Amino acid sequence: VQWLALVEHALPTGSNTALALEMFGAVPRWIWPVASRALAGLATRDATLRERLVRAIDGCAPFAKKKAGGDPREPWVPAPAHAARHLVHLACAMAARGLPVTSADPVRVASSPLPKDATDGPARLLALLELAAGEPTRALALEHLAARIAEAGNPPAGADVHLARTLRSIVVSLEGIDAGAAACEAALAKLAEPTFRDTPGDHQGDALVEWLATARWLAARGEHGRVGVMRAGAPECERLLDLALRGPAPGDDASERA
Known about the structure:
Blueprint: H1 2-7, H2 14-24, H3 32-43, H4 47-58, H5 80-96, H6 106-111, H7 120-133, H8 138-150, H9 161-174, H10 181-192, H11 203-220, H12 224-233, H13 238-245
């Protein structure tokens, strides 16, 4: 993953491109977004790769009328269950770098309601954060990001285990940016909500663990008032919260990985 981050700024050699394409199809969310950014960066310097990526995006729902999964001739495109998440992120990463993506309108991506699926929602927020990172698309993304955050983790889907990690990433990425203040506040407010209550099935325990990790993260940042809001909002978890606050705060490396 660390090498992929360097590939984003490297020459578009065959080995660099092959690595980024292969990792783009990986399922873990601490891998494929880095590969997506690497591909977008390489595409700014390689017109052939850029055309190849655009063809795959053009064949991806929600941008295309045909079946999701991209061009079947492109083996690096992940399975249909993951293709839309990955390719929407890639489209946003390319748009943020000023690359034209014919079918992927950043306005549509930013202004459309967040997908109801508990996994698709956080992935879409990552794509919007990618838009916010680029000068050509930053204002557009920040105009809509707070509203999209407010839609995340709500019933019936509940909170995917990745939601809290995504929201923490948004806060870290945007704090200090005046235009990002509303999105940061929305993310912090959402993080304090006990959304694990609405998380269905086997993911509820994971969502609770992330909620507790958020409490440690907030305490480490000195935001004890927000920890108090969490305590008041979930009094049944008070003992768990006390235990969690004695542990280390979540970091940016292994503890943040899926």
